[in-house]
Structures are given as C-alpha cells and as structure tokens.
C-alpha cells in the first residue's frame, strides 16, 4: 500500500530539509536516498577550480576572431624578424665571445719581442745596420742575431738570400803578426791599425777592422787604405750592388722599457755619449730611405690583433733625412677558450719625417721606431654564453617582437576602422 510519503520527492541535489515537492496526499515526506545525490567536490577539484580562476589568458571563441590583411603582413614580418634574431642569438651561443677588461700592468723584468719585416727598395743590404737602445742605457749595436737579409732587384725580386752571422771567423791563436800587406799565406795575423784591444788581437777581414774601429769609436774614412778591405774589394762590392734594394726581417728582444730601434746605413758606435753612424766608407752624398713595412708587431700574434703599420709604405722625394715612428705599446693578455694564455702587445702609432736641413743638428738618414709602454694592460678572455643566458635572450626576443607587432597591428586596425567610419558618414577629407 503506498503511503503519503511515496507522493513526495526531494529535488535532486537540493540540501536536506530545504525543498521538497508533493505528488499528492497530505502525509509526511521522506528524503531521497543518499545514493541518488552528487558527491561533494574533492580537494583536487577545488584546487583546479581556483587555478582556472587565475587564468590571465581567457580564451575567445574563434567565431569572434577578425582576420585582416594588415594583420597577416605584420605577422609575417614579425616572424621573419624573430627568426633572424633567433639565428643571431644561436650563433652567439655556439661561438665563444670575448670579454675585455682593463687593469694596471704590474709586470716587471719582462722582455719585449719585436718582430719586423721591412723592405728598402733603394738601400743595399751591405750598408744597412740595425741598432736598438733603451732609456736604461742598454744598447744593441749592429744587431745580427736572428736577422735575415735578402737582396732584391729594382723590380722587387729576390736576388740572393743570406743570414747574418754573429761576428766573423776568428783565429784562436795568432800565428804570425803582420801589419802590412796581405801577400802572405792564410796563417798571418792582420793588423787592426791601432784599434786592437790586446797585442795578440788579429783583424783578418775588413769587417774585423771596422768592428775594432767601432769599439774604439773611430770611423773608417777610406777603406781602400786598409789592406783587408782592399783585398776583399769592399768598395767594389758596394758599387756592384748599386741599384739594388734589401728586405730585412727577423726579431729582436729588448727590455720592457721605453726605447727605440732603427735601420740606418753605416757602422754604428758611441762617441762622447753620442750615437754615431760611420757613413764615410760609402762615399755617398745622399741615402734614399724609402721603405715598406711588410710586418711590425710586438710579441706573439693572437686572434683579432690589428697591427696598424702592416703594409705601410713611404717614398722619399726630398733630400735624405730621418723618418720617425712614435709608437705607444699596450701590453695585452689573451686567454682562449682552452685557457691558453698569450702574452702579447697592441700598439698605436704616429709618424714624422725630419729632413736633413731641419734644425742645426743634421738628421741621421734612416728609419727610426721610438716606442713607449702604456701602464694599462688589456685582458681578452674567450668564454661561452651559458644556456640560461641564451634561453633568457630567446624569450626576450620572442616576447618583445610579439608585443611590438601586436601594438603595431592594433594601431593599424583601429586606424583603418576610424577612417572607414568617417568615409561612410562623409567626414573624411
């Protein structure tokens, strides 16, 4: 038998004792069984619901999208820009970058290596000498260590190659003293013509006599008066080389202090604390010091180094004089990606020609390089960009281009709409 309770039902999902519907009758009501009601939301459902409420990118139905031609063009252009910037950033990430720092140079007692390759198209190899000196008083006169000379013709082609030796062949013991002529056998001991440092010193060649004179601070006025030079044909060999040039290259090592090195004709020596070149043996009124610097560097080469004098040339049109280069050397340390350290130098330069007629003191013909060192040291360090830095830059590129292109698109779109409305009502001129 159905009771009045059977004629009343609970609304599904309604709280208990809140609302019920009577089907009929006047009897008491009873609730819907527990199994027919929805379960309460779980903690995870409540958490996901809260996360949905934090969505800063609300979605719009595609039916409400409005696509325009200008938007397509801007999208294409921004995509190309993104791609180019991404490729650039990727290359930077895959290759090492160089970081530059400046600090005071505190090094002491180091040597400075000077590498050079200079061509003199109008000076013979036999008359060019290389000297170096610094402010500490140290001098290297007529340097021949690690120096090479090449005779070249008027067209710049190599005639012969030779390496200068250090000194000449000297006899260990004098076998026979002879101060006169050279018609004797090869066991004789040639005279030094008063320039010998000891009684048993021999000068068997013209070069030995000139070197002995140089040490004494004397000049050789006429080589034909010296039997050794006359036998070797010293002056004749110079005349035979007329019209030739010389390419001189190599390196010298000097103290790491201010100084100079120069290429000049004649034997050099000190006389009354004055640096002198003996030009008398060459019997010439002028010397053409036109030159081309094929290479000049201070220290070892490293990636990215620029030597401003490489390839520089100068042609002498007036009377002979002194061509001067004033160089500021900057100590440099380069550390590559494998942590290999290269100690080198960079330099800047200015130049000046001092004519033989300028001033009261006659300028010595030659090419002079005056150098000074900077107290600041430059350090280059190669390093890779970290992946986090690369990722940050890529995000900045994508986000920046996307934002800017969106601003441009919005400006163009609203501008077009405003113009279109004005045209429709006839207010656009």
From TrEMBL:
Residues 192-409 form the Endoplasmic reticulum vesicle transporter C-terminal domain. Residues 1-42 are annotated as: Disordered. Residues 51-139 form the Endoplasmic reticulum vesicle transporter N-terminal domain. InterPro entries: Erv (IPR045888), Erv_C (IPR012936), Erv_N (IPR039542). The keyword Membrane applies. It is found in: Membrane. GO terms for cellular component: COPII-coated ER to Golgi transport vesicle; endoplasmic reticulum; membrane. Residues 1-19 have a biased composition (Basic and acidic residues). The chain crosses the membrane at residues 69-87, 387-413. Its main location: membrane. Pfam families: COPIIcoated_ERV, ERGIC_N. Keywords: Membrane, Transmembrane, Transmembrane helix. This is Endoplasmic reticulum vesicle transporter C-terminal domain-containing protein. It comes from Eragrostis curvula (weeping love grass).
């Amino acid at each position: 038998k159905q009771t009045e309770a059977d004629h009343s039902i609970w609304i599904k999902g309604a709280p208990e004792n809140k609302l019920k519907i009577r089907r009929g009758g006047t009897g008491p009501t009873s609730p819907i069984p527990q199994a027919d009601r929805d379960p309460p939301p779980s903690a995870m459902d409540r958490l996901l619901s809260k996360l949905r409420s934090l969505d800063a990118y609300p979605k719009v139905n595609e039916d409400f999208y409005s696509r325009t031609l200008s938007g397509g063009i801007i999208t294409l252009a921004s995509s190309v820009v993104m791609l180019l910037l991404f490729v650039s950033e990727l290359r930077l990430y895959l290759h090492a970058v160089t970081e530059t720092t400046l600090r005071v140079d505190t090094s002491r007692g180091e040597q400075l290596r000077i590498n050079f390759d200079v061509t003199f198209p109008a000076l013979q190899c036999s008359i060019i000498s290389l000297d170096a000196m610094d402010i500490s008083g140290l001098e290297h006169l007529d340097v021949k260590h690690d120096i090479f000379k090449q005779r070249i013709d008027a067209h710049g082609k190599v005639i012969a190659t030779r390496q200068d030796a250090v000194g000449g062949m000297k006899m260990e013991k004098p076998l026979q003293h002879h101060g006169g002529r050279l018609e004797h056998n090869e066991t004789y001991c040639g005279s030094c013509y008063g320039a010998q440092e000891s009684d048993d010193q021999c000068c068997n060649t013209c070069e030995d006599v000139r070197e002995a004179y140089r040490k004494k601070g004397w000049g050789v006025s006429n080589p034909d008066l010296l039997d050794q030079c006359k036998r070797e044909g010293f002056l004749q060999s110079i005349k035979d080389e007329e019209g030739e040039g010389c390419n001189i290259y190599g390196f010298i090592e000097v103290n790491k202090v201010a100084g100079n090195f120069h290429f000049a004709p004649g034997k050099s020596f000190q006389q009354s604390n004055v640096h002198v070149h003996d030009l008398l043996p060459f019997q010439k009124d002028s010397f053409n010091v036109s030159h081309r610097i094929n290479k000049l560097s201070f220290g070892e080469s490293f990636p990215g180094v620029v030597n401003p004098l490489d390839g520089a040339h100068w042609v002498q049109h007036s009377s002979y004089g002194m061509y001067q280069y004033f160089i500021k050397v900057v100590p440099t340390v380069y550390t590559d990606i494998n942590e290999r350290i290269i100690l080198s130098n960079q330099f800047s330069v200015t130049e000046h020609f001092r004519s033989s007629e300028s001033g009261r003191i006659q300028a010595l013909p030659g090419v002079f390089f005056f150098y000074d060192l900077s107290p600041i040291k430059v350090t280059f360090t190669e390093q890779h960009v970290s992946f986090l830095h690369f990722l940050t830059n890529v995000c900045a590129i994508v986000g920046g281009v996307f934002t800017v292109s969106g601003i441009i698109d919005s400006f163009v779109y609203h501008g077009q709409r405003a113009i279109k409305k004005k045209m429709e009502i006839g207010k656009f001129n």
